[in-house]
């Protein structure tokens, strides 16, 4: 597709249709109505993904990782817990973190591909 858009398409809608298109455009997070109409007509649908739960999960995982680091520091000083156990916990947290990042990247790709 060319970067130069030199064709203008016009069509008419009634007031109700216009309001619906306007509302859907606002929900779509597209730059403007032209961008929205072009994307919806060429791609068929617009998908918005709510990432708020994954953002919360990210914060919780970071808190867990910080706590584990504090415990690990104390364990190394006091020799009261096994370092291998903490290393295993850290590894599992790392795996969870990687899965979460992977899920977020898939959702971002999905959102971009359906816009």
Structure summary:
The protein is mainly α.
Task: Offer a few descriptive terms.
single chain; 115 residues; mainly alpha; 2 domains; rod-shaped
Give an overview of the whole structure.
The protein is mainly α and 115 residues long. The protein has 2 domains: 13-44; 52-113. 72% of the residues lie in helices and 0% in strands. The chain has 4 helices and no strands. Helix 3 (52-78) packs antiparallel against helix 4 (83-113). It is rod-shaped, with a radius of gyration of 24 Å.
Chain-wise SSE layout:
Layout: H1 15-28, H2 33-43, H3 52-78, H4 83-113
Helix pairs in contact: 3-4
Number of strands: 0
> What is the CA–CA distance across the termini?
16 Å
Q: What's the total helix number?
A: 4
Major sheet summary line: none
Tell me the radius of gyration.
Answer: 24 Å
The geometry reads as rod-shaped
- Total separate domains: 2
For this entry, what is the oligomeric state of its chains? single chain
Fraction of residues in β-strands: under 5%
Q: Structural class of the helices, strands and pairings?
A: mainly alpha
Helix content: over 70%
* SSE run: HHHH
Can you give the mean pLDDT?
Answer: 80
Contiguous uncertain segments of 5+ residues: none
């Amino acid at each position: 597709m060319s970067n130069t858009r030199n064709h203008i398409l016009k069509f008419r809608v009634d007031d109700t249709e216009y309001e619906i298109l306007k509302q859907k455009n606002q929900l779509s997070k597209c730059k403007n109505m032209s961008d929205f109409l072009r994307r919806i007509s060429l791609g068929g649908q617009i998908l918005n993904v709510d990432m708020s739960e994954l953002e919360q999960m990210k914060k919780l995982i970071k808190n867990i990782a910080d706590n584990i680091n504090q415990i690990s520091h104390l364990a190394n000083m006091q020799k009261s817990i096994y370092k291998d156990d903490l290393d295993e916990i850290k590894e599992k947290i790392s795996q969870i973190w990687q899965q979460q990042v992977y899920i977020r990247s898939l959702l971002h790709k999905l959102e971009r591909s359906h816009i």
